[in-house]
Amino acid sequence: MNWLDEGALYSSIGLFLREDLGRGDITTQSIIARNTRARGRFLAGEKMIVAGLEAAEEVFMTLDGEQQIEAFASDGEEIEAGKVIARTTGFADILLAGERVALNLLQRLSGIATLTNAYVRAVAGTEALIVDTRKTTPGLRMLEKYAVQMGGGRNQRFGLDDAVVIKANHIAVAGGISEAVRRAKEAVGHLHKIEVRVSNERELQEALKNGADVLLFEDLNVEELARLILLSREVSPAVKIEYSGNVTLESVRGYAEAGADMISIGAITNSARAMNVSFQMQQF
Amino acid sequence: MNWLDEGALYSSIGLFLREDLGRGDITTQSIIARNTRARGRFLAGEKMIVAGLEAAEEVFMTLDGEQQIEAFASDGEEIEAGKVIARTTGFADILLAGERVALNLLQRLSGIATLTNAYVRAVAGTEALIVDTRKTTPGLRMLEKYAVQMGGGRNQRFGLDDAVVIKANHIAVAGGISEAVRRAKEAVGHLHKIEVRVSNERELQEALKNGADVLLFEDLNVEELARLILLSREVSPAVKIEYSGNVTLESVRGYAEAGADMISIGAITNSARAMNVSFQMQQF
Amino acid sequence: MNWLDEGALYSSIGLFLREDLGRGDITTQSIIARNTRARGRFLAGEKMIVAGLEAAEEVFMTLDGEQQIEAFASDGEEIEAGKVIARTTGFADILLAGERVALNLLQRLSGIATLTNAYVRAVAGTEALIVDTRKTTPGLRMLEKYAVQMGGGRNQRFGLDDAVVIKANHIAVAGGISEAVRRAKEAVGHLHKIEVRVSNERELQEALKNGADVLLFEDLNVEELARLILLSREVSPAVKIEYSGNVTLESVRGYAEAGADMISIGAITNSARAMNVSFQMQQF
Amino acid sequence: MNWLDEGALYSSIGLFLREDLGRGDITTQSIIARNTRARGRFLAGEKMIVAGLEAAEEVFMTLDGEQQIEAFASDGEEIEAGKVIARTTGFADILLAGERVALNLLQRLSGIATLTNAYVRAVAGTEALIVDTRKTTPGLRMLEKYAVQMGGGRNQRFGLDDAVVIKANHIAVAGGISEAVRRAKEAVGHLHKIEVRVSNERELQEALKNGADVLLFEDLNVEELARLILLSREVSPAVKIEYSGNVTLESVRGYAEAGADMISIGAITNSARAMNVSFQMQQF
Amino acid sequence: MNWLDEGALYSSIGLFLREDLGRGDITTQSIIARNTRARGRFLAGEKMIVAGLEAAEEVFMTLDGEQQIEAFASDGEEIEAGKVIARTTGFADILLAGERVALNLLQRLSGIATLTNAYVRAVAGTEALIVDTRKTTPGLRMLEKYAVQMGGGRNQRFGLDDAVVIKANHIAVAGGISEAVRRAKEAVGHLHKIEVRVSNERELQEALKNGADVLLFEDLNVEELARLILLSREVSPAVKIEYSGNVTLESVRGYAEAGADMISIGAITNSARAMNVSFQMQQF
Amino acid sequence: MNWLDEGALYSSIGLFLREDLGRGDITTQSIIARNTRARGRFLAGEKMIVAGLEAAEEVFMTLDGEQQIEAFASDGEEIEAGKVIARTTGFADILLAGERVALNLLQRLSGIATLTNAYVRAVAGTEALIVDTRKTTPGLRMLEKYAVQMGGGRNQRFGLDDAVVIKANHIAVAGGISEAVRRAKEAVGHLHKIEVRVSNERELQEALKNGADVLLFEDLNVEELARLILLSREVSPAVKIEYSGNVTLESVRGYAEAGADMISIGAITNSARAMNVSFQMQQF
């Protein structure tokens, strides 16, 4: 299910390390003798869906290809508080140099996977998929979308270039849905579908008449959404429906039961809290 | 108070745009005629300390140097829900190309500034400063530390290279506080102080005897912290005290009143939720 | 119709200039006095569809922002032999430094646009679209796909990441069409269609039964193609058909009349000859 | 004979792969199970001088250092249609990720080598060398000049910085050949020769009188060229002669027999068609 | 004592090699058969403190990971004229490609270490430390500061961002020492000290009253310096004193005996002469 | 005479600034109010040939395009102690941010120009040219060779790729001069000459017989050099002679009078001391 390649996922890890290391780790280099060997272990401080373990391994491997890492869980797995997620053996200065970047990634990505998974469970048994948005941290989109996958969510667009989604601002400037959908269908190739945001019956009719493949509804209550979905499917039985806006862990099931195929949630990537993971070292 | 230079703060904005734009904005370029002019406005959806407004301007300027932006608030200012934060005029395709990256930055940085500020207010009237940590998003450290400043917080280390902080993992590997502090004092230049993590009376004595300038206490209750601070100041009246661990908006004032000079909180950078800001466009 | 953004199109022009200039233009700097002003003009040596004129302008602008360029044609326009395409005024050393890179781009991209256009004309009046492939020059994909657009062709995938096309090698390794299509449909989001290469009736049935949106036929004669298209449309009236292989300017119309929706041709990008364009200078 | 270093030749291969892979290979990652092993083979579809085989190997090695490649031909070797050029064994997803970039390089570079070689054979037995020009694809100059070598051609300048060639535009702006040659001789070091374009007897005399080492004649018929070469050698027996313009596979021998030392041909790099090479995979 | 990390120290070696190699080593590739093996040795032409040996090894390793290098001295060691510093075995073309860059680094860094060491010996027995400045070669700061360490010197600031030093130009613009020191103390965190340049008694008093941790005196004679140091220590016994200006190998001991804690010398990095080291090869 | 282009000369200035600024200028940003305007002037502390003034301007322009700079001297001009070289007006924080990098370049490059010029004057009236070597600071080759030009010296090779010089290590590995020269003549194009290092009569004869264009003599006394030059010119009157080794300001004229065409001196780039230049600011 994960088609992101490692080159793209982990291409910034060198930059992340440089950001933290700068000209070098003064503390460690002052205190720890060269070639001191040590062990470290990542410990889960709470229950979570783990994500970013491979990224954390990549952090240490980037610093020193000889590092040995033994993982006791996999990205996407649910683990309990107290679980030792991975153990790493190597030079003390390498472990100390990579510790913070590894933890920052692991805590953040696990937070996203865990929050995503809570939404996925909340709609279990319905047809709805939980999907992400472009509301990701600048510079971390690939990693955060990977974490969404690990939590059981699906990815929407990776950028403005890989799919057509006509939103409110486009329509405001383009001057109408019909024209916008028509132009988009003509412009994009035979391998892409057209999604368009509609807010009422008239717009819905207009979008479908011009060949929209997917409708996006935003900021509705559950009843209104249900009514508009029904209407859409009467007009075009194969149309896909995405819903977005005001979705919480409490309200999400209602939107799913209203018949949405996809429920997209910005909060899973931009408002997840970091999971509690620590890294504890000891001399070898 | 902000000594971060713009080159360093905004150096990644081109990368952030490329991440979102990829090969180009299919939707907009298919739908909107070239040279269509439009207006957009950033609207606050809730009360917040705004941060990232200059970054958002930089996003549009990076795309098109001719863009006109009028700001109605400044980074660090508190604004109410419904406030129009800024207005921007220019080409519709530029506004649509920059919208998401600008919002992602503005929402995240305002979230950090607002949460930081809540902690700053919670300790108002005490001597304690709220300081950040290295628990920042990889790739965004500078921007996030800037947001902390905008919320009234102070910055700690920017990386492993600009200050010496001896933590539990260092001591575990180095084999003792005395030796670690001694080596650090000898190694670093005459312009840096030495901070060391201590967990009890004996360690505190050892650290101060060897010349530590700042003590770091972690994961204590308020009473225990107060006791150890008193003791530290008896031994070394000028010593500075940092406290970290288990700090919430409810508990923070207690730690401040216990006498900590600095209270460092990872959550202000790694667990702030995105603020509600929207961008609304209309044709010119 | 062109949704490629200029940042992506022209991002390598600095590198192209550096490749040619290296440490500097020995000849010009030895011979021509600084600040000598000159005029240059691009002259078409044969009839062609021009493409790359904006790229050529970008070359000079990259060297010197003050350069003045007056274009007498637009990318996508057909021009006759002898036509002065553009005139440029500025410093002689800037014109001489940019001349070769500008010409190399203009000649190559016009060659692609002209060859593409010959195919487009050959199928005029049919429903078939001429589309490009990933058989582009490494490093120039965006520019070459832009040139295809200028010649009236359509673009297929820009890379392996923006659409799903299951080809012979995939099927050889995956072990069968049915499984491959099923997995692909499950993995990719709601905004992408699935194209699959089939070579006979059985494969065609299998692909359509599992939900393929587009069929790709390769290396067939016209009659066989016509027969398989008919069959495909009986099974699935809305299916789109792409044909590829053995297409020449002579044979292309036959394939179009056989009912293909898209005819993809690698030669338009990897075997077009450079158009004859020259750059003539005189002192000001 | 090849002094180009591999660092310079292959430095862009990572970029070429990123251009094609973008965020990852959706198709393969959706369909093929991780760690599936496969074999692939490069097959020549026509007779050709092969070039770019090392580049193709580099493509796979860049993706995965463990890849095994067995070559059955060498760059510069003539092979027949049907020849298996190389066999590669490894992970299926690596082979599919690198296939297109490897083929694009191999087809293009073999096309250049083969066309160059046709010209080299056409002048066999004369003293003339076939040389390339700066009319190369932007970004591929090193690789294309390498392919020229593989076809038996010689390289001229690699950029504006490694040799002095005074062409028509220089003379138009500088105001005369004598002055131009004099200035050039003074400016460049003791390790470079001076080449100058002349179009008639007067210019030829002027160039040689001022110390030109090489004369460049352009766009002449064979008789006129022969006459001017004779005259040049009367004035300066050691002078080298380059000819350029209107050279075809039919006309080239005439120019060679007229006495040119070097015949430079832009078409060998900017108008060679891609050779027919395919890559066929099977599961292991 | 050396906390600079290798990533930061050696990150530019690839660029240094590219600067020298450009498109490749014409001479070697023309003359030496591929895969010729050879030996080379670095020979000291004079007595010196060696520095840059690890950098030189890194040069060859960057070109070819299989290179074998045997060092007979370590960075920081004093060696005599005639000493073979290291021996390297590998491909002749690799040795010839890396020779010049390796020598340029080794000669320059050894020059800095040797000159630094001469100053360190000149103050032996006093309390004064020899420290470097920001007067380093642009692009080589890390390597040059490493060489200073190897010569027994200490490093001051690595950049404008890792310590506060208020110099004459700051005071001229800020309008006074008191205000400048006050603002600096407030702005920088709890881990940095404040150094300020003072030129007379009044400034000294002002600086110390406002909490300066380190005083910088410049361009004084020894007597005047001694007098001002005495006065400073009366006011603030713990204050550290740096002296800078007019320091030569002859005068430095005087300044040290006057009581300066640190004597900073720009010449050790910007005016050291290259040491005599040669590289001699022979066929294997 | 200077054919180096500005793109190549100044391409690293952004890196140089980043090296010094890091995360920002703590001192200035803490102390100086934003938008404070100031004046600065570069003052010569001794007599020198100035070089690097344009580089210094580029430093400030890189930081802030609006900066105003008025130069009172030009690169290559001789100036006296006390001369104000340039005045710059702008924001105080920009001046303070660029000061050190600008000075480091100006002092170093003026040092090289001044030392080069001393050698040029020492051989005045002879035919000999003073030329540089590849013994330059890694990363600064272009700027240092520019400084050599400003001092009246000539540039030799810019890298291993732009000329053929066969030195002792090549001959040791290649196994003889004759073979080496023959192969080199065959390999390099018609625009390059061949230089070869010879150490005695036999080698000289061998080199010339095989067509060497330039001979390089090393480490000889004046008489021996004179004798070998005479001999060389008997064999080949047009041959050029370079001498290198043991050249000082005292000995250089002797080598020039012995008849060398070029005298190459590594010390002018790797052992010049920095010139005394200061930068003095005042508030506006």
Descriptive overview:
Chain A is of the alpha/beta class and 284 residues long. Helix content of chain A is 43%, strand content 19%. Chain A is built from 12 helices and 12 strands. Chain A has helices at 6-10, 13-21, 26-31, 53-63, 92-122, 141-150, 168-174, 177-187, 201-209, 222-235, 252-257, 267-270; strands at 37-44, 48-49, 68-71, 78-79, 84-91, 129-131, 164-166, 194-197, 214-218, 240-244, 262-264, 277-283. In chain A, the strands form 3 sheets. Chain A has a 6-stranded parallel sheet. A 4-stranded antiparallel sheet of chain A has the order 3-5-1-12, covered by helices on one side. A two-stranded antiparallel sheet of chain A has the order 2-4. In chain A, helix 9 (201-209) runs parallel beside helix 10. The longest helix of chain A has 31 residues, at 92-122. The radius of gyration of chain A is 23 Å and the shape is elongated. Chain A starts with 5 loop residues before the first helix and ends with a strand. Chains A and B meet through helix 2, helix 3, helix 5, strand 7 and helix 7 of A and helix 2, helix 3, helix 5, strand 7 and helix 7 of B.
Q: Order of SSEs of chain A, N→C?
A: HHHEEHEEEHEHEHHEHEHEHEHE
Distance between the termini of chain A: 39 Å
Largest interface: A-B, 77 and 77 residues
* Strand line-up across the major sheet of chain A: 6-11-10-9-8-7
Helical proportion of chain A?
A: 40-55%
Q: Which segments of chain A are poorly predicted (pLDDT under 50) over 5 or more consecutive residues? A: none
Summed up, the helix count of chain A is: 12
The backbone outline of chain A, from C-alpha atoms, is: elongated
Strand content bin of chain A: 15-25%
Total strands of chain A: the figure is 12
Mind summarizing the main beta sheet of chain A? 6 strands, parallel
So what's the oligomer here? homohexamer
